């Protein structure tokens, strides 16, 4: 139990540390998706860099892509789903800090196991939330690929196996 908890705590602490630095707010899919401020950047070796802004604007290789209102709404949902992963990561980092504080406080009492179990449950719930957000990214990605030709090169960044793997890992 504590091995997985410590692994999750280490990841959460790293996310917390990263949010205070000048690095991207969120890095996903081995760097293929990054969030920095109001922009999600898609990085692939096989395609030019693409940027989705919070307002739904879409830029590929430095050129603005014309989008319909429906496509813009999907692009906004994509941005929001990536941003939700960031927000959940921050919450996990805070839970990790909370766990460390409770562990120090509980060290002198017999409540150490209860404190660890409470935070562990919160982290497990947040892990499930990240999986839901990842599934939302996949769903929007699929819709964008079907509707927006300029998005097709980025249609495979989040795969069904990524979502399944996330759900499996979150259960452990």
From TrEMBL:
Keywords: Signal. Residues 1-22 form the signal peptide. InterPro entries: DUF2884. This is DUF2884 family protein. It comes from Rhodanobacter humi.
């Amino acid at each position: 139990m504590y091995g997985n908890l410590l692994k999750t705590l280490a990841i959460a602490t790293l996310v917390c540390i990263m949010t205070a630095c000048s690095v991207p707010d969120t890095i996903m899919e081995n760097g293929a998706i990054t969030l920095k401020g109001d922009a999600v950047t898609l990085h692939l070796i096989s395609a030019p860099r693409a940027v989705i802004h919070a307002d739904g604007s879409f830029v590929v290789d430095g050129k603005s892509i014309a989008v319909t209102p429906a496509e813009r709404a999907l692009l906004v949902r994509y941005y929001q789903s990536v941003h939700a992963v960031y927000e959940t990561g921050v919450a996990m980092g805070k839970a990790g800090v909370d766990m460390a504080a409770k562990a120090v406080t509980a060290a002198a009492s017999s409540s150490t196991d209860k404190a660890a179990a409470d935070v562990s449950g919160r982290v497990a719930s947040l892990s499930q939330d990240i999986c839901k957000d990842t599934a939302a990214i996949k769903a929007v990605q699929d819709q964008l690929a079907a509707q927006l030709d300029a998005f097709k090169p980025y249609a495979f960044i989040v795969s069904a196996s990524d979502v399944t793997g996330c759900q499996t890992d979150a259960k452990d």
